[in-house]
Amino acid sequence: MTDFTANKMIAGVAGMSSERRAMPSGPVGTKPKRLFEPSRVFIYTVLVVAASFYLFPLYVMIITSFKDLEAIRFGSLFVPSNAPTIEPWIKAWDYACTGLNCEGIKVGFWNSIKITVPSVIVSISVASVTGYALANWPYKGANIFFTILLVGSFIPYQVMLYPLVLITAFLNIFSTLWAVIMIHTIFGMPILVLLFRNYFISVPTELFKAARVDGAGFWRIFFQVLMPMSLPIFVVAIILQVTGIWNDFLFGVIFAGTKNFPITVQLNNIVNSAQGVNEYNVDMAATILTGAVPLTIYFISGKLFVRGIAAGAVKG
Questions:
Q1: Which residues pair with 98 in a beta bridge?
Q2: What is the pLDDT of residues 46-95, one digit of tens each?
Q3: For the segment 162-183, what is each residue's pLDDT rounded down to a tens digit?
Q4: What is the value of pTM for the model shown?
Q5: For the chain, which domains are there?
């Protein structure tokens, strides 16, 4: 072994010894937080109070919907029934009186389905393509068009009711489901275009440029490049549209006609009926059935909804 190699080995051993002496003897890293730290206790207390504020009325609705009228009159509001029954649910769905007809809310449920499905499909399809064009294929006057859409989203619906009545009457669709579908499709466009435009702007431009270099055109880039990676923003759009259209009362009561009332209008007729005894159990069951569809969609896709909002609502 040469003197140079021996000196190098000695220097290495000395360096390792100095590093070992320099290493701290105690635990390394940030100090773990205490379980009952004041800030953590405060945050969880606020969250529990807020959750209780929203969940407690739902709890009362659910237990009331499984009681009979005698248990409601003489029992506690907050205590479940000893003999629960599903009769209020059957009556709310099948034969509760919604005005002159006693067919339950099932008729309004299917009317709402007929209104919601085409409105959501058409509005999201048009808005996604429009937002994609504004973000990746800017054209002359695109900013003006986008500004008009934003201004339109801030105009109150009530201001446009009378002109819309005249337009739908001129088109011979007043008091039909087509009138409600058209109105929901149009009024959903501004916010949806904003969401899709902001989302597509946040997508790296290198993907778009690479597709262009490979010879892809407008539709091929949209369907094969952007759509597969845009599931979160589509989920956001679906939840927003389904919730807004399903819970709508104003357009349904004005434009649908008495034979085509959506479920929200029929729920109002059940709850505010002036005939007979107030059946609170039926009212609660009908209310839960009315809100079941948007709640189910949100619980199934809630995580994607949060991701899509973060990606598409705050980008400029």
A1: 101
A2: 999 999 998 999 999 999 999 988 888 887 788 888 888 999 999 999 98
A3: 999 999 999 999 999 999 999 9
A4: 0.80
A5: 38-85 (no CATH), 110-312 (1.10.3720.10)
